[in-house]
Specification:
- β6 and β7 (72-76) form a beta hairpin.
- With 265 residues, the chain is mainly beta.
- It folds into 2 domains: 10-151, Jelly Rolls; 157-264, Jelly Rolls.
- It contains 2 helices and 22 strands.
- The relative contact order is 0.18.
- The chain has helices at residues 119-131, 185-191; strands spanning 5-8, 14-18, 27-28, 33-40, 49-51, 55-69, 72-76, 80-84, 90-106, 112-114, 147-151, 163-164, 170-171, 176-182, 198-200, 204-211, 214-218, 221-225, 229-233, 239-244, 248-255, 262-264.
- The chain starts with a strand and ends with a strand.
- Strands 2, 3, 4, 6, 7, 8, 9 and 11 form an 8-stranded mixed beta sheet that branches.
- Helix content is 8%, strand content 48%.
- Bound molecules: fe (ii) ion (2 copies).
- InterPro entries: RmlC-like_jellyroll (IPR014710), RmlC_Cupin_sf (IPR011051).
- It comes from Promethearchaeum syntrophicum.
- This is Cupin domain-containing protein.
Length: 265
Amino acid sequence: MTDYELFNLNELNGWIIGSEFEKNTPFYSSLFQLGRTNYLYPWKDPKFHYHTESIEIYLVLQGELWVIVDEIAVILKEKSILLVQPGIFHSVIGGKGLIQHFGMKIPSMEDKKIIKEEKDDYENKIEKITKSGFNQSPYKQLDRNHGFIADLKEESNINCWLIGLWEVKYKTEKFCFAYINFDTLEEKNAHIHQDHFHYHSESTEWYFTFKNSQELLVNDTIVKVPEGYLLKIPKGIPHKQISMSFPFEGATIRTPIQDDKIILS
Ligand SMILES: [Fe+2]
Ligand SMILES: [Fe+2]
């Protein structure tokens, strides 16, 4: 088993990490599917769809995404995250500005159900839902059976496990998610106690760097994760975050988390 994989996401658009069913993606994972728009103009999905098994997350870093979740139209502003539960219809219907966002499906599998409807029916449905207005206060939480929206500019949503198990705002047994944003070293030191060298019995951990860079010790190698890169650390591989350059922005995802044990080494 390799110790780690480092992906350069810069310049890539579309589905980057796909399931075994999506042959066109350059990388494969059974755990995690990753796509992105890298400063693209707003678009409109051709149909509503839902996922039978996967949770989908939209992480908007720049621009604005307009999304319909079941019967609710929401505006996803810059630095916000939307989680859509399996079985819930959703569709991107537009946006504003140049959009930089990440789309993730966890777990990664061939479970997308496109709902066959005539173009007119789709347009009528969108009109009906948006007639009552976009939810201008999208951070008002969605019904938990449908999903979850969080404003990542809000202090309490950053630099912590926002989604996952234990003391989090949104509980799921499928994955953990943290959005990291530290302007200075002092800010980081005030938030995080010393990270221990550890490994996971079940989880693969993914470290994103959106701005500047971070370094991790993986086994006995120092791995630098520059801006726009993604580091994958498989289960059983000891690791520890050792430094970052500021202002830093990134995210960490761990999956699957059920039965995972964190073992200090
Ligand atoms: Fe989807
Ligand atoms: Fe870890």
